Amino acid sequence: MNARLTPQDRQARTWMLVAFAIVYTVWGSTYLAIRVAVATLPPFLLAGIRFSVAGLGLLLWLRLRGVTLPTARQWGHAAVAGGLLLLGGNGLVVWAEQTVPSNLAALLVALTPVWFALLEWARPTGVRPTWQTATGIVVGFSGIALLMAGRPPLQPGETMNPWGLPALVLAGVCWAAGSLWSRHHSRPESPWMNAAAQMSCGGMALLMVAVLRGEPSQFHGHAVATRSWLALLYLVVFGSWIAFSAYVYLLKVSTPARLATYAYVNPVIAAILAWLMLGETLTRQTLWAAAISLAGVVITTLPRRE
Predict the structure, then answer these.
(1) Is the pLDDT of residue 3 over 60?
(2) Is 58 exposed, middle or buried (0-12, 13-18, 19+ CB in 10 A)?
(3) What's the CA gap between 141 and 268, in Å, rounded?
């Protein structure tokens, strides 16, 4: 049995639970926000503006509060992590969601826990996934597959870029690799400064790709729908400042297997939000899928008996 928790331990556990709740719920809504934003905003320009504004804004706020800047080495690690997480991970998702429906994107992104487990195992000092972790991954992904089964991938008249699906798979690999890099390399003591550095670096990389693709010359502010601007604002404040900072904090205090369970919860949250906000039907199949997905989370996160 564990010893009685100290007040500091209880406070740390509370913060961890709050951070998980934020990542689970807020990121469940960002698939829809991205889909709305890319309707009239170029994808890499959108993502670059989002993370550059979020990263530099958070960096300025932290400096005003006296938080120490990262060292040169930590900036280098933040550039690698930010490039993998935000250019490779988020950037490819935003690009793919121009034509790939958000529910199908969520399904492919739900493979991320598999990449977490395999990449963690492949590291020189990595840990082989346990049967409990493997079982949780299979159960959780089964729930997501059931959640998406029977949903039409495309609306009438829509077309889908065939490169969108492999891009989403690669995005999951990049996200897992960036997360593990951030976890196992030197970083600032403050997780919020670490998040600011990664968002700043990743945002700049996204803007460079946008320039290379010629997106700024195609951008016309008057042609951007109001709801796309509002979606961008939501992504900056809630998706980046709040949820991404919570995610980077969890990289420091939790395990990769537990953290990867967000990929199972996000689509469930997205389905519930669609029911509450858009009036979509919440079927018995959806409820069963949610229960199975959450069972995968429970299996993965339960403490192992020694």
Answers:
(1) no
(2) buried
(3) 12
Q: Which residues contact 287 (CB under 8 A, 6 or more apart)?
A: none
3-state secondary structure the chain: CCCCCCHHHHHHHHHHHHHHHHHHHHHHHHHHHHHHHCCCCCHHHHHHHHHHHHHHHHHHHHHHCCCCCCCHHHHHHHHHHHHHHHHHHHHHHHHHCCCCCHHHHHHHHCCHHHHHHHHHHHCCCCCCCCHHHHHHHHHHHHHHHHHHCCCCCCCCCCCCCCCHHHHHHHHHHHHHHHHHHHHHCCCCCCHHHHHHHHHHHHHHHHHHHHHHCCHHHHCCHHHCCHHHHHHHHHHHHHHHHHHHHHHHHHHHHCCHHHHCCHHHHHHHHHHHHHHHHHCCCCCHHHHHHHHHHHHHHHHHHCCCCC
Q: Assess whether pLDDT exceeds 50 at residue 306.
A: no
Closest CA to 197 of 70, 14, 18: 70
Q: Please check whether residue 174 is in contact with residue 89, taking contact to mean a CB–CB distance below 8 angstroms.
A: yes
pLDDT in tens, 209-255: 999 999 998 888 888 999 999 999 999 999 999 999 999 999 888 88
The tens digit of pLDDT for each residue in 250-282 reads 988 888 778 888 888 887 787 777 677 766 666
- pLDDT of 150 reads 60
What is the signed CA dihedral for 38, 42, 44, 50, rounded to 10 degrees? -60
Angle at 186 between CA 176 and CA 13, to 5 degrees: 70
Q: Average of pLDDT values for 44-68? A: 95
State both tokens at 293.
Answer: 């997905």
**Domain residue ranges in the chain:** 11-152+163-301
